[in-house]
Amino acid sequence: MPSKAGHDFKGKYLRQLPGVGKLMEHPDLARLSETCPRVLLVEAINEVVDAHKRRILGAESEEQIKDMDISFQHFVEEACALAAENARMSLRRAINATGDVLSRSLGSAPLNEAAQKALRDVAGGYSTLAVDADRDSHVRDLLPVLTGAKDGLVLNNNSGAVLLVLNTIACGKEVIVSRGQLIESDGFRLPDVIEKSGANMVSVGATNKTRLSDYHNAVGENTGAILRIHKSNYRIAGFSQEVPIQELAELGKEHNIPVVDDIGGGCLVDLTQRGLPEEPPAFLSIRNGADIVCFSGNKLLSGPQAGIVIGDTKYISMMRENPLYRILRTGKLVMAALEATLRSYLDTDKIMEANPALRFLSRSPQEMENLLHPLVDLLMERLSGMAIIEIENGYSNIEFVSAAPEKFPTKLMSVKPTEVSAYTLLKRLQSRTVPVFANIQGDCLLLDFRTVIQNEVDEIAVALVECCQPQ
Question: pLDDT-based confidence at 59, cuts 50/70/90?
Answer without folding.
Answer: confident
